[in-house]
Fold this protein.
Amino acid sequence: MAKVKMYTLSTCPWCMKTKKFFRENNIPFEFTDYDLLSEADQKKLMKELIELGCTGAFPVVIIDKEVIIGYNPDTYKQVLKLK
């Protein structure tokens, strides 16, 4: 099974839809709510996300080493090889 990590905002509707997609498809994932981190941790994480090519938009989903920015269930399915 692919390793799924996501960075989200706790109040973002697209982030909530992303989590729901993975739950409904029984795909385990880890997530971090960026907005609930301390200011220092936010700065550190944003630096890491920018290095991955992110622009500051959420959600950021990493499936194995594939980075997907935004809510994009078709891309999630393609990367995970779901029907």
Observations:
- The chain has one domain: 4-80.
